[in-house]
Amino acid sequence: MRAYTPKDDVQKKSYYTDRFWVAPQVAKSEVSDDAVFAADLAAIKAKFDVLDAYIQVEQMVVVINANDNYSVLEFLKNECEYTQLSEMSAIDWLATEGKFEIFYQMLSMAKRKRVRIKCKIDEKEAIQSVEKLFRSADWSEREMYDMFGVVVNNHPFMKRILMPEDWEGFPLRKTYPLQGDEFAAWYEVDKIFGKEAREIIGPENRDPARIDRYDTQRFSRLGHEVPFGTDISQGEPDTPLVYQEKEGVFMVEKFDAEKSVVISDRQR
Amino acid sequence: MAQHQVNYLKDGGLPVALTTIDKVVNWGRSNSIWALTYGLACCGIEMMASGASRYDFDRFGTIFRASPRQAELMVVAGTLTKKHAEFIRRLYDQMTEPKWVISMGSCANTGGMFNTYATVQGVDRVIPVDLYLPGCAPRPETLQYAVMMLQQKIRKESASRAQKPKRLM
Ligand code: SF4
């Protein structure tokens, strides 16, 4: 198993840097370039604080205050014809800014436009649920809680959706190791057999390339199978495919490879 | 009705040899392996194909059952997630002795390509496995061969009641 390296600083310190690599940036343009978006933005600005607004890939991005999220979405739904919430989730910026970014992707079928509403919250802060406005937010908010640990207020059923309910940790945070922390590594053993079974069952083998040529307890060579635990350091005999014991099977017809029919016509 | 009197219990004249009982019981067991439907991921599709008409598992006496109480073979076909581990254990415990497990495909054997926090790295961490099938996914022919190997294994076992159940620990 590869040694575990802490990933708490994975965003601050990259493990490999190419001096000539420039991070690609999606070009931003002014909202005034698009008449429909400009009108929508003016309407939002009249009622709410807008921290930033721009157009990216033909979609308007509006950054608002986190405690306005319900009223802005309500306004967009009722007044601006953005009637669908096609996606929402969080982005982990804890290492660089100490904040989560929450985004709501809205679609207007009437205007054929998409708008993304963004806001930032602190790690321990909760956000208001928009489930009353859009039913699609129900599971999305639960998934956001499950994966990032962002608590959503006024949600009708605030529970984990994908991971087991007694899971510890939030897997999509950047600090969560891909192969799991100690809790994850022993989850099934602890739950089924209890913690005292850890020594008997042993740690997980996380190295998929691990092969021991002479280990006949865990590996066998196809066509050269030997009984469990045989010493094969001197080489092993060929073992042809055997379907039945040599002396035949009680009350079962002897399988004759010569007489068996091989179907070569796939359409038969 | 026999004319002569044989006191079987007293004279040690039991008309059937014990080895034959073994053989008869094992013949019955090995040719009626009812399997629990246990498709967890893509390997499950190959398992279903093995049960369907082209490959026809019924001719081996292997019939898929939807209840663990009617099954003696569990073909773990697919990726076992950590969330699901306790359920597979519970279903395994509900099967009646004697019972066997075939671990089908890389995922069930070792976790396969899912080297992540959410996948059990091999079902043998949770339940005792008799046969490991390599492949991603193994073809139905491979599963058929595995069942025939399992039949051989069953025929080698003693049919005695004192047979010790397999335990991980
Ligand atoms: S071994 Fe391959 S085919 Fe089978 S469940 Fe895993 S990924 Fe799917």
Give an account of the 3D structure:
- The complex is a heterodimer of chains A (268) and B (169).
- Chain A has 7 helices and 8 strands, in the order E-H-E-E-H-E-H-E-E-E-H-E-H-H-H.
- Chain A has helices at residues 35-47, 69-78, 94-97, 137-148, 182-185, 187-192, 198-201, and strands at residues 28-29, 50-56, 59-64, 84-93, 99-108, 113-122, 127-128, 152-153.
- In chain A, the strands form 2 sheets. Chain A has a 6-stranded mixed sheet with strand order 1-2-3-6-5-4.
- With 169 residues, chain B is α/β, with parallel strands linked by helices.
- Chain B has a domain at 39-156: Rossmann fold.
- A 5-stranded parallel sheet of chain B has the order 2-1-3-4-5.
- Chains A and B meet through helix 6 of A and helix 2, helix 4 and helix 6 of B.
- The site of iron/sulfur cluster has 11 residues of chain B, from helix 5.
- Iron/sulfur cluster is lined by residues 41-43, 78-79, 105-107, 112, 136-137 of chain B.
| Total helical elements of chain B | 6
The helix-strand sequence of chain A is EHEEHEHEEEHEHHH
Residue fraction in strands of chain A: 15-25%
List the quaternary state of the chains. heterodimer
Q: In the CATH hierarchy, what is the superfamily of one domain in chain A?
A: NADH:ubiquinone oxidoreductase Nqo5 subunit
Distance between the termini of chain B: 53 Å
Q: What proportion of the residues of chain B form beta strands (DSSP E)?
A: 5-15%
CATH topology of one domain in chain B: Rossmann fold
Any guess at the CATH architecture of one domain in chain B? 3-Layer(aba) Sandwich
Task: Give the helix/strand layout.
The complex is a heterodimer of chains A (268) and B (169).
Chain A: E1 28-29, H1 35-47, E2 50-56, E3 59-64, H2 69-78, E4 84-93, H3 94-97, E5 99-108, E6 113-122, E7 127-128, H4 137-148, E8 152-153, H5 182-185, H6 187-192, H7 198-201
Parallel strand pairs in A: 3-6, 7-8
Antiparallel strand pairs in A: 1-2, 2-3, 4-5, 5-6
Chain B: H1 8-11, H2 18-30, E1 35-36, H3 43-51, E2 64-65, E3 73-77, H4 85-94, E4 100-104, H5 105-110, E5 131-133, H6 140-156
Parallel strand pairs in B: 1-2, 1-3, 3-4, 4-5
Helix pairs in contact in B: 2-6, 3-6
Bound molecules: iron/sulfur cluster.
